Amino acid sequence: MLKIAKKYSLHISLVFFLLSLLQILFNMTAVLGQRELIDFSVYYGATKVFMEGQNVYAQLYGGVPFNYPPSILPFLVPFTLLPLRISQILFTIISFSSLAVSFYYLKKVLHTIQIEIARPFFFILLAFAYQTFPVKFTLVLGQINLIVLALTIASIYYYLASEKYDKNYYLSLILFSIASCLKVFPLYLLTLFFIRKDYRFFILSLVMFGLGNIIGGTTNLMFFMTNVYPSLTNLLSYPNFYDQSLFALGMRLQIPALIAKPITSVLALFIQLAILLHYKRNFHDEKVKNLNYIFVICAFLILALSSISGPFSWQHHLVFAYPLIFLFAIQYKNNIVALLVTWLFLTLHFRNDHLASLFPPILLSYQTFLILFIVIKCIHDTNKKIIKD
Fold first, then answer.
1. Are residues 225 and 362 in the same domain?
2. Quick one: how many helices (H) and strands (E) in the chain?
3. What pTM was computed for the model?
């Protein structure tokens, strides 16, 4: 029986993957036929206002504010050329496909640093990823996170591939800049390029991000910097049960908001500095030969940390931790318990406030604990590998 399963493992994994896709497609078809996607409706409405030359932050869209930098607006203009319902279907198709694109480029990135994954296990991981709550939450809200993730991972791959082909460098730069304009998470990675002494990539990425914000309207940019951004960073309200930020964890530990804010900010900064110092030390160590390995691991660590270190981190933000979780799954592919616990933590969610209130508040940060554990574990494993090498 085991021999047959091994012989047809690719076929079995493909069937499992297709069943997972069909289940998600069935649910998303039902959702798209019943209602408008909340966050996409905000994108759509704000871009319409932008096209009219007005302040996009001066009104609500279905009762929801637009809280993004104006750099995202020019890239959303094509969607406003179609009716909202048609646009959100097109957007969902792109977003839905982006997870598979992300995993495809993750596989290629890991191949460049001599980490391989068998095709059956790849399709199994992708099938499980589509069933996780952060992915489902991203799709049903019409969030842009999966598109940003795909662009970011593709950018990292082409950056590493630029050592052989120069044109890949500029493709990487363009993809990275677009991803940063859509959402700021990729900008956290710029410190790695600075340490790597690739000042051209560092500066041009910031320039293109700045241009995107200017094109999004100088009035919008000024209002965002002086009103929207400060209100987001100074948020001290008790967290929603969807919030998986470190700040939410502090509040659930009954730490007063005014104390939890600086403590969790310092904690996130400390971990990020540890990652950067780790990269800097190894980058300048002549004994360390596989610098791309350190670069990739640190990039994944920073993306994962950024998913929980903001003033609030809705569960759809956690897709930015998936590259690190993907790596973790490959490294512990023989540990069934670790894989199942990880998948369960990513799949389970509280459907409403009433259900969440039945559990101790600390348990509501279950995915925060998972991300922190995987971050710390990967830092430890990376150090062991470097020492061993």
1. no
2. 20, 0
3. 0.93
